[in-house]
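Repro:
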Amino acid sequence: MTMKYSRQRAAILSFLQSRRDHPTAELVYSSVKESFPNISLGTVYRNLNQLAEAGMITKHSFGTLGIDHFDYNTAPHYHFVCNCCSAVIDLPMAYSAISSIDEEASKDFDGLIREHRLYFCGTCRNCLDRESGED
């Protein structure tokens, strides 16, 4: 998919590139709005979806959160979702560590599995520290 250059889209992409926390469209909107006061949330959503369709970013839908998160890192990798604060964190785990899961799932399935999407849930370090009273 070829996209015409847009300063707004470039700002959205630049914002995502500077982040490691998988922001939502609303967070992207609030940041980009500082440079483009007339930009609408709909425009941000449209551009994020276009960038995802073009393979320039990844759109993640984590079921437990009920809202899309966007990631500049398009390489296959796993995520951790905090049940307390809803943070989305890249896991430093080799994607190939459980690559056999596709084969395992295919054993008794009469179809073609092409990929898997898997995320881990629990409590992040910041929330654990807060629970224990450490700051």
